[in-house]
Write a structure and sequence with these properties.
Layout: H1 2-26, H2 29-56, H3 85-100, H4 103-121
Helix pairs in contact: 1-2, 3-4
Length: 132
């Protein structure tokens, strides 16, 4: 994590330098703000990585002589397949159309999104297929 944190810290310094140079060359506030905010995001990620690396310690990817086998730990459970992202995306689209066209469509989209997110969240607590 330390190497990644240093990478982001160097990237943040580079973005701030580019934003400064861009301001003096172009005098364009929108592009300068975008580059400076990119530097701010890199600063936040770099600070988090460096701060966390002190507590976690050296990871296998931080050691020069580490082997591939040193990093083969359990990273978590990832489901092999799920149909729930489909209705989540559908109802997110209905919400966006409801914001444009009609309030009743917005309400329908919010209700459907809540049901589909709940189904996605609890899909492994009720068996293979959720029955309605």
């Amino acid at each position: 994590m330390r190497v990644t944190g240093l990478f982001f810290a160097w990237a943040a310094a580079l973005y701030y330098a580019v934003a400064t140079i861009y301001w003096f060359v172009a005098h364009e506030p929108v592009g300068t703000t975008a580059i400076a905010l990119t530097g701010g995001l890199a600063t936040i990620v770099g600070f988090y990585m460096l701060f966390t690396s002190k507590r976690v310690g050296a990871l296998p990817e931080d050691q020069l002589l580490a082997e591939v086998e040193h990093a083969d730990s359990e990273y978590g459970f990832f489901p092999p397949h799920s149909w729930w992202p489909l209705p989540v995306g559908l109802f997110a689209g209905v919400i966006s159309m409801g914001l444009i066209f009609a309030a009743w469509l917005l309400v329908l989209g919010v209700v459907g999104l809540l049901i589909s997110v709940t189904g996605w969240l609890f899909e492994y607590y009720r068996g293979d297929h959720l029955t309605w």
